[in-house]
Each structure stands twice: as structure tokens, then as C-alpha cells.
Amino acid sequence: MKKHLLKHFCAVFLAGFMALLLLPQAAQAKGEEAYVVKSSDKKTLTFYYDTKKSSRTGSNVWGIEETKEVNEHTYPAWSGTWDTPESEVTTAVFDASFKNYRPQSTELCFFNL
Predict the structure, then answer these.
(1) Whether residues 37 and 7 fall in one domain
(2) Do residues 69 and 24 share a domain?
(3) pTM value?
(4) What is the domain count for the chain?
(5) Do the beta carbons of residue 63 and residue 33 sit within 8 Å?
């Protein structure tokens, strides 16, 4: 009886462990990525989380993790800096796809816009 119970416990444990390893890979297989597009007129930032980054057009397209270094400070690539505001952008749009993205931080995302 104990041997039978131990077999089932090991099988369940192994199945759970494999699920932990394989499920994140299945999620990554979708190829979705978070990114920001500045419109051609440079007035709108649109945030996306999908597989269409390479087909988006605008004046700039950045990955959500892209940064720029200015005077030893790090800022998101699309934001303004302490010394140089991003004065052209007037609107931020969050595409419906972005609801599926979970940012680790929003620090400085809209700094000096």
C-alpha cells in the first residue's frame, strides 16, 4: 500500500515539475513582446504587446525595455530626460493588446513628456 502511494506521489510530483518547466516556454512561444511606437507626426506614443512589432510604422519603434543613458541617468528610450523634455508627444495610447503585459516598473515611463 505504501509503495503504491509513493508511486502515485512521485508521478504527481514529476508531472507538476514538468508543468512548471514547460508552461513558461509555451507562453514564450507566442512571440509576443511589449513595445512602443511613436507616430509619424511624433505626437502620439502607442503601447503594444503582440507579435507585430516588425510591421509597425512610425517615426520610432522601441522595445519596452530599451533605455538611453544621459548624464549617468537611465531613461526609457521614448521619454524625455531631466535636461531635455520630449515636447512633441501630446498623447499616449494603450492598444487593447497591452492589457496582457505586466510591466515590472513604470518608473520614468512618462518622464518629462
Answers:
(1) no
(2) no
(3) 0.68
(4) 2
(5) yes
